[in-house]
Amino acid sequence: MPASQSPKPILGYSPGPLSVGGAVTVEVIIPPVPLQPLMDAQYLDSKIMSQRPGMYIKYFPYLYSPVNGKLLGGGCYTFDTYEHAAEYARWTETYEVESEGQTIKFWDRPLFESHRKWVWRVVGAHSFREMEAQVCTRLIQWKYENDGVGQKLVELYPVLKETIKDLDVAVVWLLHNSEEKMVGLHVVFRNETGTVDGDLAQEALEEAIKAPLETLMPRDLSLKKFFDRSSFLLTMWLPISREAGGTELHIPLRSVAVPDISLDYI
């Protein structure tokens, strides 16, 4: 049954400031595969991952490359603390799975052609809309060389939050990695139906692509962009809802179902 038709509601998440201190963003490149097999292949691992300490939410974005048809996916996670985010990133390097009768490291799965991941401190995060309305995301990541960027981001966040609210978005995270001198901006967009089916979904994705997010960052930060992707949402894993007795998984795409866990996955 698709999660959008789940008898369990989403509990424990509501609009307002998010009490999160750390984040992880991940990019994976996957060979061309239909969405239901992808859902089947990652379901059990995502379920296990969503139970790691301190996780607040996991977004699984996806987009098929118009160039070669490969699936551009990954994850955007927030945690209650930076330490839990960093520990999660370390844990994924040691997490083992079964594949073709062998035990291998998670990132060595044949499903993944490549992966990259980044750990962040959350400067500020806010939800403007209910979870059920969220359908696509845009993640932008920059590098910088200047000093004093961290304090400037703290000063920027209240202004950025109010400005971005006027774009009628659902969620914003402003992220900083001082060790690697990186800034991240993760924005979740919505539509009226809360699904990624049909014309409204495409309109939401087009709005994400053309949203003037880069103009929100002051020029004196001298940021150099190295990642910018707008994607549909395949799944949203919701540990807080699970703990409250609600659904642990929301699937905006109605044509994709929670898999039969007796299947042998990719």
TrEMBL record:
It comes from the Eukaryota. This is Uncharacterized protein.
